[in-house]
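haha ok so turns out i had the wrong file open the whole time. this is the CORRECT one, sorry everyone. sequence first:
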Amino acid sequence: MSVFNTTAIEIPTFILIGIPGLEHVHIWLSIPICFMYLVAIMGNCTILFLIKTETSLHEPMYYFLSMLAFSDLGLSVSSLPTMLRIFLFNSTEISSDACIAQEFFIHGFSAMESSVLFIMAIDRFIAVNNPLRYTSILTVRRVFKTGLIFATFCIAVILPFPFTLKRLKFCKKSLLSHSYCLHQDVMKVACSDNRINVIYGFFVAILSLLYLVCISVSYMLILKIVLGITSQKGRLKFFNTCVSHICAVLIFYVPIITLAALHRFAKNVSPVIGVIIADIFLLVPPLMNPIVYSVKSQQIRNLIQTKLCKKHYRWEISASMKVWVTPLYLNTCRN
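then structure:
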């Protein structure tokens, strides 16, 4: 009898969605999505490899860039399983434990990326405001200590999410509104009291907004310093050092702000737009950040070109050796 009197039951699985109305072309959409994931993972791994192996990149700015690449790599890997399952195999079900684990990693790496972008803004401010003392202020030890403190802080902030979700009860309706699990998405389908989730989620959103405000203030201060430089060449030099980071901030925050504005002010808009923007949030930053930094950073660009030229040169030598050795080998065999 207790089974029939229960209004809230434990849902073993949730249902994710692809792009509503375009289910028939999911297999074709999987091609660019797979390509974007491949480029993002290869690009961020390349950045990490170069910074680890090249001593010329052992500087504070590039250490922070490696943290950004690690966060992007984590975001890509966290969303990869469900995105590919939906678009390649049309498999939309996900267990509750897997869903909660995925939302923890997605929110965790997103929080880390916000933190790294904030640290990089402070790094650029110190570089512009006090260039002569830059290396003495941001020593290697301080850089790694700062990274560790912010990573621990992000984990501590996101860690309550899985526990607050586990205490919720879910009704029969378990359809989520994205291609991956998010805290705010999962808590909406709960039929038990989710006030704790709402309050804590709002607190985390305020923290993220605070990061954006701090980044904006740091760039206002940088702009004030740069405009005070009389030399136009000097101004361009300082602007060029900040362009990559400004692009990374815009790439990360524009989809978040757009999605928040849609949920708040455009509730009647097609759900397809919200799903596409949510997918852009996870696909585009890990894809674009390595490209932007490879294009705008001359050191990284030169190193990539050097590595590619060396490989091409080795391939040409091996090919020419093969052409020269093969006839000699055949003549030897004949003799």
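The chain has a mean pLDDT of 82.
again sry for the mixup
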